[in-house]
């Protein structure tokens, strides 16, 4: 996974997803692209209204871009017009494809940061994905103290300073991906489960405060979205084949 450019490839024609695969799509977000005006009609009325409520054009364009591409990707997998898809939300705000949109068991999750978005798709398994732009102009120690578990705090503080930024974003993206896969929002305390995050260490869920048996049911994987970004995937399954696709606007037209 060291060569990030070669990791992400163009999907084949007649792309399908099996029940033993996870497809991860990488999207480069160009908030100034003139093509964004063609994205808006793909959205539902509710989504268009939400887009118009954003105070800043950059946030508005980012939302329109990611949501419209999500519709095109999911629409392709279930063979339905992207405009006809309906999304519902669980009580914690996690979106899912409504039953009146498809009987196909497609599950997905979305994350975006700065100029990159990731969309992860499976057939049958709960899934979460997170991407973060790596920067250092914030209070690392304060976040570690508030959101890391006791074991994670000890590990992070034992690391040499030159590893701490990478380790922090490894930990944060893995915890976020797992929380998003569980679909319970902040009702699932970040400091009550442990993930591995030392640089060079395989990603994994180590333990949880609520049920040790759940650890063996989950896989956490590191994702390399691009240089300067960290990413992670969590899925309630093991030994799935991960496919990494680079989005282009000429797909699925």
UniProtKB/TrEMBL annotation:
Residues annotated as transmembrane: none
Name of the protein in question: 4'-phosphopantetheinyl transferase superfamily protein
Gene3D superfamilies reported for this sequence: 4'-phosphopantetheinyl transferase domain
Domain of life of the source: Bacteria
Family: Belongs to the P-Pant transferase superfamily. Gsp/Sfp/HetI/AcpT family.
4'-phosphopantetheinyl transferase domain span: 127-227
Natural source organism: Cyanomargarita calcarea GSE-NOS-MK-12-04C
One cellular component term from this protein's GO annotations in UniProt: cytosol
One GO molecular-function entry: magnesium ion binding
């Amino acid at each position: 996974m060291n060569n990030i450019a070669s990791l992400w490839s163009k999907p084949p024609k007649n792309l399908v997803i099996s029940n033993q695969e996870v497809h991860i799509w990488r999207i480069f977000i160009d908030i100034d692209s003139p093509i964004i005006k063609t994205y808006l009609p793909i959205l539902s009325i509710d989504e268009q209204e939400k887009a118009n409520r954003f105070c800043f054009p950059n946030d508005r364009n980012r939302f329109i871009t990611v949501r419209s591409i999500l519709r095109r990707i999911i629409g392709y997998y279930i063979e339905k017009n992207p405009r006809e898809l309906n999304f519902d939300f669980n009580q914690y705000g996690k979106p899912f494809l409504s039953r009146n949109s498809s009987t196909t068991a497609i599950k997905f999750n979305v994350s975006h940061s700065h100029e990159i978005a990731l969309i992860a798709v499976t057939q049958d398994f709960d899934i979460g994905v997170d991407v973060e732009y790596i920067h250092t102009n914030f209070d690392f120690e304060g976040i570690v103290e508030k959101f890391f578990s006791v074991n994670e705090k000890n590990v992070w503080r034992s690391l040499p300073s030159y590893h701490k930024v990478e380790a922090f974003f490894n930990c944060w993206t893995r915890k976020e991906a797992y929380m998003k896969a569980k679909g319970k929002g902040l009702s699932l305390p970040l400091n009550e489960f442990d993930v591995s995050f030392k640089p060079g260490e395989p990603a994994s869920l180590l333990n949880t405060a609520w049920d040790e048996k759940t650890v063996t049911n989950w896989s956490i994987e590191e994702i390399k979205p691009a240089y300067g970004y960290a990413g992670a995937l969590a899925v309630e399954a093991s030994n799935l084949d991960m496919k990494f696709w680079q989005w282009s606007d000429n797909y699925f037209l």
